[in-house]
């Protein structure tokens, strides 16, 4: 299935990963030679560009350390505060990943690297699935959010919105995608989603890929379809768009595409009007080769339900990137979501790694600060060790902690491969214990196994610490769905109590000690009615989060978000005794 372009991309990957150490040194050398004279670096390097001086003098920082410099540029001061090259704009990070959106500087060099990614990023995919650009169209759910203009006049937008605004994307859109640009930029996400699903169904015979940026968005689309398929079929049958779609752009786009097609509507209706929606994606889009979306990290919890809907189609998480930089590729796109590793590309940024200690099974004391730990270079990481990712980029970030924890799973040539473990500091804590996103995921995975044999699926969960009474305790919100028409009211309460116990048994040593000492009260699961997590997503979208960038928080911090879930609770269950 390989093409000449594909072979060129694979060859480039081979060269990059084989010469990883040399390319990393060149990357850092270029960053320092360009920017050593900036106000920020001058204070640490005094105009020097040596690697060892950089490692010795330049501090490891978070966004909060760089925010004053970035804000000055956003407010109109010259870019050479942080980088020699002019800042051309800013990327907005996801507003639901660790708090408020961050302004990440963007430059021409940054965009040049982004264009370079396009030359080889699809190569591993093409090796397995062929060139889907030639085979048909992609039904991808895409949602832009408004740009923000900073006082300097520079625009700030999410990474995805910036891509949707590119002339190349807009030119290729009608040929490669089922969604017109008007539906992507529709200010009402529900109207945009309805229209994107409608046009994806109308063009279903051409669709060779289904997906979105995140697994959660694909699932939202399928659940939306589950609630609106009859209306969608009526629109396809009559060739008329539903009256509640009032956005002029969506209506204009529909007028160019829609015409009465009762035969197609009947086919779709017969597929959707069934007892079980298992494999519905494959049934509706019969030529689809895979589902493309990020399904690692916080998206892991969606894979079970997504696999139910796409039964037999591969779930492919093709790349690992963040607002700060593109990081790496999944060279084995056919592997299971739980086995995905990303190979870091040494020409994207200068990568360093802060070792992360895991002492959960050895001590229940609070972990000490590891800020003074020496950073490890890309090629010197050790297999099996966890690290926090630290990047230095061409766009003014130096020794910047991204906040992602990665585990080294192996090497491809001389470049390490990583599995995404969790976001740093996404934790529950009543006292001195620290429960991470990964701890929580493992415990939930153990507990939800009790539901599967009974015909129920855990579709969504999140958590928070309830300290309204002493001692405080962990609260899990669970949304449960029955298979083949089962209702969650049929679920035996004893099973839910057992789920609470199973979760506590699966949590770390420190938690168990604190429970036995009554420093932490019994874990609680609150079951919420269907659609509760969609309401949560709607809340965050109404606050300015892009639907395609939305990542459900593993831990609820917002009082308003908490009220949304609490108002939809249909059952409360507690662990009956401390874990052994």
TrEMBL record:
This is Indole-3-acetic acid-amido synthetase GH3.17-like. Residues 342-423 form the GH3 middle domain. It comes from the Eukaryota. Residues 439-560 form the GH3 C-terminal domain. It holds the Pfam family GH3_M. InterPro entries: GH3, GH3_C, GH3_M. It comes from Gossypium barbadense (Sea Island cotton). Keywords: Ligase. One of its GO terms (molecular function) is acid-amino acid ligase activity. GO terms for cellular component: cytoplasm. Belongs to the IAA-amido conjugating enzyme family. Coiled coil: none annotated.
